[in-house]
Amino acid sequence: MINNKNKYAQFIKSEAKRLGFLSCGISKAGFLEEEATRLEDWLAKNRNGQMTYMENNFDKRLNPTLLVDGAKSVISLLLNYYPSETQNPDSYKISKYAYGKDYHLVIKEKLKELLFSIQATIGAVSGCAFVDSAPVLDKAWAAKSGLGWIGKNSNLITQKVGSFYFIAELIIDLELEYDHAITDHCGTCTACIDACPTAAIVAPYVVDGSKCISYFTIELKENIPNEMKGKFADWAFGCDICQDVCPWNRFSTPHNEPLFSPNPDVLELSKRDWEEITEETFKLVFKDSPLKRAKYEGLQRNIDFIK
């Protein structure tokens, strides 16, 4: 059986590579003890702001065996989204992950195909795919399976490729050979903490979500607090500052996923173009884009706040 566990794990990793994933790591499904204390403290200090969904399903968030019947293994996968081109410098900025098609749609398809391959080759394996939309602590699982370490900006960082990638999981009822966590390589660096314009990284490895530009421009549904005026550095949807300044991201290389390729029009938009965009154009250009999450009204609110 030991050989089978190893053989199946190697097969899954080779299939993940075939499907375009950057890397794949596997952990034993179980209770995340260290994360439980951290999450409890984070929520108690209201660092989730209006992201009340973070308070839901607390037990399931920490234990995938409560989320998926018979769960034995958490397969963590990384998918690169680092672009080969960036926006016109005279523009309101959007996070690089939002340049192309909504990653939920792209990754879900890949995960379905991976599960199908597992079932076709190994046999009766049940499982569920998760892409950032269910109570799964994706960064914790990816770190546990050796895909990187959680950095001082709370992002998963990998030595060879940085942090511009999506994290997804396939949780299955099959025992596999498991990977191990790697060491932290942030060292004494505080580049991300020093660069954050809203001081959202309140301590090394602790981000106050309610102070983050991404929170204000995507999650917050009401008016942005006036004390944040002048601190957004032209970010209208999300923010990449703590990743852009991270020394490990000098190793980022452009993705090869056609669906993440940006609409050339989006990269060329000037500030004036963003200010004058109509709702009809917004719906047309961003119909399968992550920007849908902010909606037209939300994007206009953000631009009005920072212009």
TrEMBL record:
Q: Where does [4Fe-4S] cluster 1 bind?
A: 186, 189, 192, 246
Q: Which reaction does it catalyse?
A: epoxyqueuosine(34) in tRNA + AH2 = queuosine(34) in tRNA + A + H2O
Q: Entry cofactor note text?
A: Binds 2 [4Fe-4S] clusters per monomer.
Pathway participation: tRNA modification; tRNA-queuosine biosynthesis
GO annotation, cellular component aspect: cytoplasm
The record ties this protein, via InterPro entries, to: 4Fe4S_Fe-S-bd (IPR017896), 4Fe4S_Fe_S_CS (IPR017900), QueG (IPR004453), QueG_DUF1730 (IPR013542)
Active-site residues, as the UniProt record annotates them: 132 (proton donor)
Binding residues annotated for cob(II)alamin, in chain numbering: 61, 132, 153, 156, 167, 214, 239-240
Q: Where in the cell is it found?
A: Cytoplasm
In its UniProt record, which GO terms are filed under biological process?
A: tRNA queuosine(34) biosynthetic process
Transmembrane as a keyword of this entry, yes or no, is: no
Query: What broad class of enzyme is this?
Result: oxidoreductase
Q: Which Pfam families match?
A: Fer4_16, QueG_DUF1730
Q: Where does [4Fe-4S] cluster 2 bind?
A: 196, 212, 239, 242
Q: What does this protein do?
A: Catalyzes the conversion of epoxyqueuosine (oQ) to queuosine (Q), which is a hypermodified base found in the wobble positions of tRNA(Asp), tRNA(Asn), tRNA(His) and tRNA(Tyr).
Record-given protein name: Epoxyqueuosine reductase
